[in-house]
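Hey L., structure's done. Input below.
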Amino acid sequence: MSSGRRRFRPRHVPERTCIGCRRTAAKKELVRIVRTPEGHVEVDETGKRNGRGAYIHRDQACWSRALQRGAVERALKTTLTESDSRHLAAYESSLSPAAGAESVGAAAGSSA
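Output:
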């Protein structure tokens, strides 16, 4: 009856939408930010902390867009405190600008 072979389905890769650029990507490619039950906003590198979460590319351009446009506050349904804003800005500055320059450059090149 059975030939001994099984057909395997391709593994499901979870996708999320970046709140900075609104593009979808694999969950592993994005970094999660979370509003904790205590109300603080933090970067969640593990992606497993409790609380309401949102995802952003590991890219300075996406981070600056999300912070400037208020996308973080909207996605997490909260108001950022001064310390939360400083913490997120510090994380943004630790990211490499190379990835952001590519996406910004590609967008600028297509509109020229």
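Strands lie at 15-17, 24-26, 30-35, 41-44, 52-57. The mean pLDDT is 86.

-- N.
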